[in-house]
Amino acid sequence: MSYERILIKGAYLMTQDEKLGDLVGDVLIADGTIQAIGRDLQDDRARVIDGSGSAVLPGFIDTHRHNWQGALRSLGPSWTYQEYRNAIQIGLGQYFEPEDVYIGNLAADLLSIDAGVTTVRDESHISNSSEHTDAAINAHWDSGIRAVFDHGWPSTEAEEWQFGSARTHPEDIRRVRAEVLADDTARVTLNAMLRGPELSTFEVAEHDIRLARELGLRISMHVGLGEWGAKQQAIRKLAEAGLLGSDMTFIHCCTSTDEELRMLADHGATASVASALEVFMPGLGQPATNRLLAAGVRPSLSVDTETIVSGDMFGVMRAALAYQQLVIAGAAGPMDRAPGLPTFGSADLISFATIEGARACGIDHRTGSLTPGKQADLIMIRLDHANLLPATDVAAAIVAGGHAGNVDTVLVGGRVLKEGGVLKGGETVFEQAAASRDRLFRAAGYPPQ
After folding, report:
1. Is 414 a residue whose pLDDT tops 90?
2. Which of 75, 83, 90, 101 has the most C-beta neighbours closer than 10 Å?
3. Which residues contact 72 (CB under 8 A, 6 or more apart)?
4. pLDDT exceeds cutoff 70 at 412
5. What is the distance in angstroms between the CA of the first residue and the CA of the last residue of the chain?
6. Residue 159: C-alpha distances to residues 167, 199, 250, 431 (Å)
7. 329 in a structural domain
8. CB burial class (10 A; 0-12, 13-18, 19+) of residue 42?
9. For 141-180, how does the pLDDT look when each residue is reduced to its tens digit (9 = 90+)?
């Protein structure tokens, strides 16, 4: 593949690289990677992009999104957790054909790119067949996004796969690892989405963890889900069994105990906070961001499901900050009322949404910061738009007021996917998404939209 040489000049660079910090300067991109960061860079062969009046930062990294639901967005912003499960996982998931998975994933990817997300960790519990799995992966290749595909379980017989399930992880993950996503340096790579002792028996959880490690895969796991999570204490069980490790990302952690969060930190594991979803959806618990910081964990951020919340990281960052204000006011949930919880600011949220996301995905050596030698996954946000002016504090302006319309340019691996505020490609995807939704509704007997 041939790569365009690009020189971005005179932008406010939020590098997320501790050695480089923030500066006004230039970024030189060639061969799909960042070649240089500095001031007054020159390259006669490069196409120059004027970065004045803009911020350039690493692309956002969403560490937990169920992409297959991309054609079902905004169906239930007031749903409880059980209503979501009944309508989507149990109700519609069984009717998905591979083409529906492809369209849902592609629609989710394109919305992500448009809003500045350059990497998504796709938590794919729609592995109804090998064809469904392959369709999900193919969408990531076609969209141009960087994807960590987290192979999960089916949404057929959905109730048999969660909350005490005795079924082991689908064996098709071996085929995917050997034949489909064997290259851990590719733009689309493989992880394992496991249910763990909160959603399966402990014997199954142990089997699945050993399977993932045999295949050399990082692991994600949903824990701390409402009252059930508080009762199960999955992190504690894993630690006591010697299974807790640095190759694990724990999603939500809403009702995981403070001691469990310290166990997570002690073992070098990472966490993903889906703050917008957690404040919207009754039944999960509240965002654990401040408690994770108290335990020594800098979390990543994630959208979760677009059926409930908007699929952009701006809303996720704002929700995390809004909930923190309740913590500070003493009006938060019961697990967040301990005195002296550490707090975070806008710059921290940018970090959570970029470099910490890369660490959670195990790809921080490749992306997540504007560091020479890393992949050129970056975004340019216009600070001269009316909603962000005068951008006195750039991080605060982006967190408090930013939206997808401010994202002028998006690059993944040096390839331009959005420029001048216009997304490249995907003109027919959203019509296909509407048709997919209508077919699924008819199959499930839902009222037409």
Report:
1. yes
2. 101
3. 88, 92, 104, 306, 307, 437, 440
4. yes
5. 42
6. 11, 10, 22, 31
7. yes
8. exposed
9. 999 999 999 999 999 998 999 999 999 999 999 999 999 9
Report how many helices (DSSP H) and strands (DSSP E) the chain contains, helices first. 16, 17
Tokens describing residue 323:
């909930």
The boundaries of the domain holding residue 296 are 60-361
* Amino acid found at 21: G
pLDDT digits (tens, 9 = 90+) for 199-243: 999 999 999 999 999 999 999 999 999 999 999 999 999 999 999
Sheet of 60-65, strand order: 60-65, 117-124, 146-151, 188-194, 219-223, 248-252, 270-273, 300-301
Cα-based torsion angle of the residue sequence 20, 116, 292, 334 in order, rounded to the nearest 10 degrees: 140
Residues 51 and 64 in one domain: no
206 & 224 share domain: yes
My answer on whether 264 and 350 are in the same domain is yes
Instruction: Give the separation between CA 359 and CA 275, rounded to whole angstroms.
Output: 19
Q: Are 235 and 256 in contact (CB under 8 A)?
A: yes
**Total count of domains within the chain:** 2
Is residue 411 in a domain?
Answer: yes
Coarse DSSP helix, strand, coil percentages of the chain, rounded to the nearest 5 percent: 40, 20, 40
In a domain, residue 297? The reply is yes
Over residues 107-136, the mean pLDDT reads 98
Q: Cβ–Cβ contacts within 10 Å for residue 377, how many? A: 32
Q: Which of 319, 272, 226, 298 lies closest to 65, judged by CA?
A: 272
Beta-bridged to residue 69, according to DSSP, are none
449 occurs within a structural domain: no
Task: Say which CATH number the domain at 287 has.
Answer: 3.20.20.140
Query: 105-126: string of b/e by CB count within 10 Å (b at 16+)?
Result: bbbbbbbbbbbbbbbbbbbbbb
